Amino acid sequence: xxxxxxxxxxxxxxxxxxxxxxxxxxxxxxxxxxxxxxxxxxxxxxxxxxxxxxxxxxxxxxxxxxxxxxxxxxxxxxxxxxxxxxxxxxxxxxxxxxxxxxxxxxxxxxxxxxxxxxxxxxxxxxxxxxxxxxxxxxxxxxxxxxxxxxxxxxxxxxxxxxxxxxxxxxxxxxxxxxxxxxxxxxxxxxxxxxxxxxxxxxxxxxxxxxxxxxxxxxxxxxxxxxxxxxxxxxxxxxxxxxxxxxxxxxxxxxxxxxxxxxxxxxxxxxxxxxxxxxxxxxxxxxxxxxxxxxxxxxxxxxxxxxxxxxxxxxxxxxxxxxxxxxxxxxxxxxxxxxxxxxxxxxxxxxxxxxxxxxxxxxxxxxxxxxxxxxxxxxxxxxxxxxxxxxxxxxxxxxxxxxxxxxxxxxxxxxxxxxxxxxxxxxxxxxxxxxxxxxxxxxxxxxxxxxxxxxxxxxxxxxxxxxxxxxxxxxxxxxxxxxxxxxxxxxxxxxxxxxxxxxxxxxxxxxxxxxxxxxxxxxxxxxxxxxxxxxxxxxxxxxxxxxxxxxxxxxxxxxxxxxxxxxxxxxxxxxxxxxxxxxxxxxxxxxxxxxxxxxxxxxxxxxxxxxxxxxxxxxxxxxxxxxxxxxxxxxxxxxxxxxxxxxxxxxxxxxxxxxxxxxxxx
Length: 665
Prior knowledge:
Blueprint: H1 7-10, H2 13-45, H3 48-84, H4 88-115, H5 117-123, H6 128-143, H7 145-160, H8 164-188, H9 192-214, H10 232-241, H11 243-267, H12 275-301, H13 303-311, H14 315-342, H15 344-349, H16 356-369, H17 376-388, H18 392-418, H19 420-450, E1 475-480, H20 486-497, E2 501-502, H21 505-514, H22 518-524, H23 544-562, E3 565-568, H24 572-575, E4 582-588, H25 591-601, H26 606-628, E5 640-643, H27 644-647, H28 649-662
Parallel strand pairs: 1-3, 1-4, 2-3, 4-5
Helix pairs in contact: 2-3, 2-8, 2-9, 2-12, 3-4, 3-6, 3-7, 3-10, 3-11, 3-12, 4-6, 4-7, 6-9, 7-8, 7-9, 8-9, 11-12, 11-18, 12-14, 12-16, 12-17, 13-14, 13-17, 14-17, 16-19, 17-18, 17-19, 18-19, 20-28, 25-26
């Protein structure tokens, strides 16, 4: 049977990049516009202190955004997964719970921020000179938190429902309205920073309102009142699925907070004072954020291209895509470097005029802090590339390296020795070190895949038993610890009942239907590491691991419909939990016997066997927890749990055969 044709593996690379990346870039840029537009009009209409005030309020908005993305992206992933499992009621429950959770959290965060606005601004580096402006701007922004949080969360859900245009329209209309209202409130009504805040909140309300209207039009699910009733397990699953987005946003909040406080502390010891450094850094960061939005959008759009071709072992296409992405990214960052080095004074004037000290420090910040901006053209896409090909540990390290691992320590160390200018040089060090780390990871990965031969093999499914002697009609699912002998027990049961046995056969079937290689599937199925928790699919929804789970779940359901069989692993007990005539078995063993089997049958070294057993069982437990929300070894999920050491593997199989034959179905 022929592999399923997939445009990701056949169309021209550049055409695919254009198709997938442009919508991502537009979406990222629209998100950045809210911040940058306010800064421009406030700078022109209010002045430097107004811009500085928005910079110390900005972390509050980022905290709210972090929670809304956690729930929105988590609910979106939950929707996609449950729809893939053919569980529309659960999918609806996920969206309903996501909306309810966002409403509750948004009101709570708004109230807390309003009541404790002063202390929060102090935490984020507010100075006496900025305080009046920051309080005026912050009070209004805080009142709009429910609108921005609900609107943002719904935007992710709408996109996952298959309506990316609706999601984009609501965002774009909000951004355009903000551009129109800012000058009206600031220059016509002379409302200052409060006017800019009001323009932002009104614009966010429009996005919120349009997205609320969509709730009644969800295409893939039917939302009932019951779906909005909070369910602890569902809410927990949503939050865990969205934790990656939360961590990404909160890391930025931490960086801005540390930065503002250090700038205020060391700035006051110089002729620039505290207010100028905080203001300038906020502007520079937001300008660089626009640049990053383009690079991130480009790389994120290519995630499915990277992932599919890597999984299909079409390594030439993987390398070609990577060359395009890195080449385009470096071109973008090079142009930015030239602008930042040659006309920094012109760029800062877009955000209003200042005195000589203001202009001097702005020029220095652009030229020093962003000296190695070209490096982000390698570092950012590299992180997203490793995420796309399932290398979550490398992706997580690269994602956190620039901001958390290098920048924050460098700011503390360099500012201690070099004062205010040490903070500027910390940016150079962080960019340089994260670039070298990305280059090292890329070199090793490209060297590895270059040594592999691309394959386009025809895969054949192992022959099934054509008939069965067991007439009762039963499906047996076997969940087992690594080294417990569970797979062999399942095989013996199938042989004694003369019914089909499925384990490695799933790999052949998924390979045939998706075009992914058997090696990739074997390496990535039923495994979920700790870093996968903070490296979920971004923007494009499900990643390849999710697709593998859904495809295997679909195959499991189809096999169960055909007749009696034994299915090993792959959360098959969960997939078939609502079906009749299914017996769920969990097999375990003590470590001594697991080590003995691992060394005898799997060829593992005795010293390393225990670590490998613990590692694989941990990966299986994480995989099960992620996709079911339950504990893998919880006996309440199974009809029978057995220690294979008590009777031995063969006798355990005989006992289970008797149990199956005598159990009332």
